[in-house]
Design a protein that fits this description.
This protein has a domain of about 70 residues. Helices cover about 20% and strands about 30% of the residues. It is built from two helices and five strands; from the N terminus they run ααβββββ. It has a five-stranded mixed beta sheet, with no helix packed on it. Keywords: Signal.
Length: about 120
């Protein structure tokens, strides 16, 4: 009789008693994960681009050279960041943009410097 009274709180407060998951429920809840993993092993498409997917005439991938962009830089999206000065180097495709961040420091006296981060923008022309 004592064992029954001790068993009631153990079973009553155990969360595993309330969680009943069948095998079918587990398989169904695992289906998105299984399908996502299976999609990695799909056969690749080797037919190439269709005529509708071909790039426009302006996006032909022509080569150009990087030039300093003079204009309003707030409406462009930089596609790459440069570490050095790319002016005159070859680029592709024409019409793409890039930027370079550099530190501009001015001497303010007593060995102190006031430094700001500046950005130069470049365009492939």
């Amino acid at each position: 009789m004592l064992y029954k009274y001790l068993l009631i709180p153990v079973l009553g407060f155990s969360s595993w008693v309330y969680a009943k998951v069948t095998y079918d429920d587990a398989i169904e809840s695992n289906r998105p994960y299984t399908e996502a993993n299976a999609s990695v092993h799909n056969q690749w498409d080797d037919s190439g681009l269709s005529d509708a997917e071909q790039p426009d005439e302006g996006e032909s991938g022509e080569f150009g050279t990087w030039t300093v962009f003079i204009g309003n830089p707030y409406y462009i999206e930089s596609s790459m960041m440069f570490k050095g000065d790319p002016t005159g180097q070859q680029c592709s495709p024409k019409g793409s943009y890039g930027s370079q961040d550099y530190e501009d420091c001015t001497h303010v006296g007593n060995g102190d410097f006031d430094c700001d981060i500046r950005t130069k923008y470049y365009k492939c022309e």
